[in-house]
Amino acid sequence: METVTITMKNPPALYLEADNVSPDKFAGKTGSQIAELHVYEGNTTSTLGKYFEVSGNAGATAADTKIVVKGDVKKVKYLGMKMSDGELVVEGSTDLYAGAWMTGGKLTVTGNVEAFAATGMKGGELTIEGNAGNYLGAAYRGDWRGMSGGRILVKGNAGSDVGMYMLGGEIVINGNVDVHVMTHAEGGKVTIKGNAKSKLGGQLVDGTIIVFGTIDVMMPGFKPVGTVELEVDGAKAKFAHYIGDTGERKKKRKGQIIYGNLYKKI
Amino acid sequence: MAEYIIKNGHVFDPVQGIKGDKADVAIKDGKIVKDNEVSSKAKAIDAKGKTVMAGAIEIHAHIAGPKVNVGRIYRPEDKLFTYTPKKGNIRMAGGFSIPTTFKTGYEYAKMGYTTAMEAAMPPLFSRHVHEEIRDTPIIDEGAFPVFGNNWFVMEYLKNNEIENTAAYCAWLLRATKGYAIKLVNPGGTEAWAWGLNCLSVNDPVPYFDITPAEIIKGLIEANEYLGLPHSIHIHPNNLGNPGNFTTTLDTLKLAGGYKAKNKFGRDQVMHLTHTQFHSYGGENWGNFESKSKEIMDYVNKSKNITIDTGNVTLDETTTMTADGPFEHHLTELNHLKWANVDVELETAAGVVPYIYSPDIKVCAIQWAIGLELALMAKDPMRCFITTDHPNAGPFTRYPRVIKWLMSAKAREAQIKAFKNSDKVIAATHIAGMDREISLYELAQMTRAGPAKSLGLSGMCGGLKPGMDADVVVYDFSPDKPVANPDQIEAAFSRAAHVFKSGVEVVTNGEVVNNGNKRTIWVNAKVKENPQVMRDIQEKFLKYYSVSQANYESLGHHFVPNPYAIEVDATQ
To answer: Pick from A188, B195, B459, B498: most CB atoms within 10 A?
Structure first.
């Protein structure tokens, strides 16, 4: 695997749209060709090389390409957008849409990400070592197709609207989450190791929410149906089981109504 | 103005009966002229080995106004990754199924379309419609105000007052700068305000005590009383439901016995739109099947009817119609977001996104039905190609529809690609059809035919000297066999040259000029009718949320470059 390192040297005055920073876009290119890829700053189109120092060459394919992003990229959007393979490591924190619509590969952010990370994600692995912003693994504005595959791990906390319109895949948050979890979701699983606030599973059609800590306010559309023992990450524990959202339309499978599930550790 | 002579192209012009012969087309002062009437300074365009036609005419699309804008506002995902930046005098443009006004103008022009009709203008919001038409560059446009659920119309027709209905229609066309009398689910949309619908032509409209059949016949009579350029333009009852072909036949039969009365060369008294959505058999989605044959048998023998197809393009799109109850029905089926609007005394509208997936049997059957209608048409001058943009697919897919119509091989490939291919073949006629639409028939279905139906045949849709110089050159050779049907789609997607009223607006598939766009409307004069004027005044005082003075679309702001077609019904 070849490694390309891009280091922020000339920070933008406005926010930078860098959707070309992905193993797919870099694949088969030399360092100087990569520096020529376009970025947008406001309504101006310029090149990656204007802001970043590029060292190393990419591999022949996305799978053979690793990208390391260094320096202050807090004002850079769309890192790893639509990546399908290979590896991208962001050393630090980044702005909106990190890993949006990614279909494969591994994206690691050692700091925090802003809102809409992994929007419409279909596959691959996203690891956020710091905190995630709002709308993690959600659908794009207006869309009804949120995260449908892959895995997201947040080592810190996450903001509001995690997994909105989620269809599949898995999100694990080691810390706490803000309001609205899996709103409108029709599949997938969100595990919250810390505490949750309110509006978990509002209009949930199908899918699973697991909470280890506290829930401030339960949705009235969720109905307690008993306790179960679950194994999560190799550890067994007892959970109170709720089904819902009973106010939302429900699918049927083999004559049985399918509910979404919410488990809260006892 | 610049002079042009388009040399040695293969010309297809149904107006003059030219079927691909090599001929020159000369342009001077915005009009087509005889070859010898241009000076030696005329710029020569070499069209050797290329196809030359008049500018195409869109007879039915939803491209301007509040319902289109609701789609734009509530579907940001439709715009995602579609924007192209400003370049010279070409504005930033984007959107797929509900493009910006600018993109609408550019995309029509690039395909060789020079005139388009907005198919459903809510009269109360005509100002919004005209602001969007004004901001749609290049193409000439008109808009059809909706009448089929209008309180005035229902009250007059209940008492069979044709003269009053006609006077009201004339007033509304003038107030809204409208082009024709449009009906959408007559009576059914008003019933929707009561939570009901009219699924047959005989279902009574609540409160008004009138049936869709009475509304339709009454408006045909009012239309012919006025002698408008276009006939009534109808989206009949019971759209989109299995088994609805009987309602469609019942609707078509209402035109029986009526004869067109106008000075525009129009022969039909009814235009039935997006016929694909109205040609369904079966009792449910399980045994859903094509009834295109039953519909076309009736259309083929009825010379006083024209139709357009409403071809499904197998895309993700946005449905939008003044058929409010239908959109509610649709959101219950696909669970996607629903917008619904009531328009006071006049109409309503709904919007729902829709995905026509080639993996879903019903969508594939709908695809087949749309093509069957065109392939079964015996008179291409009475059957026009539309996608009911954006309802069955975006208008930007016309080149793909043309490919399917012109190539049995392309249809075969698509049928094979369907997930439920065998079931689709069993429920349709498409697999056995080997007809391929010729370029001449295409010119009839997209140029001369819609022009005649709209009463514009003196102005556009042909290449006869004296007509507007709307001319298209396609990089498509009628002489050479088509090795790959995708060549058809590519050629019709990006015209080599497009002239709008004598101005070259597109060169090599790129927009080069914003042209001189006009708004076409119909100014119908009727005898003074104090009763109707008093009724209008009273309704504004009693019911409307705006005053009469704030209702009309007037002046330069709304209609900066009008082209009024005068109709005199005072005699």
So the answer is: B498
